[in-house]
Amino acid sequence: MIPLLAQGGFHEEMGNPGTRHNAAMLAEPQDTAADLHFSLAGIRVRVSAWFWLAAALIGWNVCQSFSRGDQRALLQFLALWVGAVFV
């Protein structure tokens, strides 16, 4: 059977948009103290703490190669990396 788009843009095979199965995939992370909250052009923005962790882990090897063993330089490069990923 070819899946047809149901009302709301979901495939029939996926069920109703409010089902637990779909809600689990689209749920946003809980608020934490490490979240960044601000407003941009009247739109509320929240950057999750998981973003900061993921950005640091993705850039770790690149920053480590640039720092050449200097821990202070590693932290500086990592801060620049995370800032660049954020922008």
Report on this structure.
This protein is 48% helix and 11% strand. By secondary structure, it is mainly alpha-helical. The chain has two domains: 1-30, no CATH class; 34-86, no CATH class. Strands 1-2 form a two-stranded antiparallel sheet. The chain starts with 19 loop residues before the first helix and ends with a helix. The relative contact order is 0.09. The model has no long low-confidence stretch (mean pLDDT 79).
Strand share of the residues? 5-15%
What helical percentage do the residues reach?
Answer: 40-55%
Distance between the termini: 44 Å
Task: Report the radius of gyration as a whole number of Å.
Answer: 20 Å
Overall SS class: mainly alpha
Q: What's the main sheet like? A: 2 strands, antiparallel
Molecular shape: elongated
Brief description of this entry?
This protein has 87 residues and is mainly alpha-helical.
What are the SSEs and their pairings?
Blueprint: H1 20-26, E1 36-40, E2 43-47, H2 49-67, H3 71-86
Antiparallel strand pairs: 1-2
Helix pairs in contact: 2-3
Which labels suit this protein?
2 domains, 3 helices, two-stranded antiparallel ribbon, 87 residues, 48% helix, mainly alpha
